[in-house]
Amino acid sequence: MSKHFFIVFFISSFFLAANGQDTTKVTIHTADQYRDKLVTFCDLVAEIYRPTGENKMIYINFGGKYPDQLFTAVIYPADQLRFPYNLLALLKNKTICINGKITDYKGKSQMVLTEPEQIQIRE
């Protein structure tokens, strides 16, 4: 186990316990039904990438690779500095849970991640 996993796990566990957050758990097949709601979404990362260049978002795709993904989590450039680890290496081929609000982007469900506490690695 990596040092980063323990840091993320500890922070995530503390954040959830401290906030008493008990969100609805959704799957890739039910996510569309929970748009505009705070949920916990768990699935295998199918693809994670950050386009080259400056000021690029990180995309975490589930249920397939772009453009066939069923769900996407995005991290905007301004928020990436809050993540003290290399997301591209850490989350590749991992099952993770993310907490946040599901929104719609061009007909597909997505979640914007702004804090590392929103991600829990399940392995």
What value does the average pLDDT take?
86
Q: Please provide the count of β strands.
A: 7
**Envelope shape:** globular
Computed CA radius of gyration, to the nearest angstrom: 14 Å
> Spans with pLDDT under 50 lasting ≥5 residues?
5-20
Strand order of the largest sheet: 2-3-4-6-5
Name the structural class: alpha+beta
Secondary-structure element order, N to C: HEEEEHHEEE
Q: What count of helical segments does DSSP give? A: 3
- CATH homologous superfamily title: Nucleic acid-binding proteins
Question: What CATH architecture label applies?
Answer: Beta Barrel
Helix content: 10-25%
> Terminal Cα separation, in Å?
10 Å
CATH topology: OB fold (Dihydrolipoamide Acetyltransferase, E2P)
- State the major sheet: 5 strands, mixed, barrel
Residue share in β-strands? 35-45%
So what's the CATH class? Mainly Beta
List the keywords.
single chain, alpha+beta, OB fold (Dihydrolipoamide Acetyltransferase, E2P), 5-stranded mixed barrel, 3 helices, 21% helix
Characterise the protein shown here.
The protein has 123 residues and is of the alpha+beta class. The chain has a single domain, classed as Nucleic acid-binding proteins (OB fold (Dihydrolipoamide Acetyltransferase, E2P), Beta Barrel), CATH 2.40.50. It has helices at residues 3-19, 77-80, 87-91, and strands at residues 24-26, 38-49, 58-62, 71-75, 95-105, 108-112, 119-121. It has a five-stranded mixed β-barrel with strand order 2-3-4-6-5. It is globular. The termini are close together. 23% of the residues are buried. Mean pLDDT is 86; it is low at 5-20.
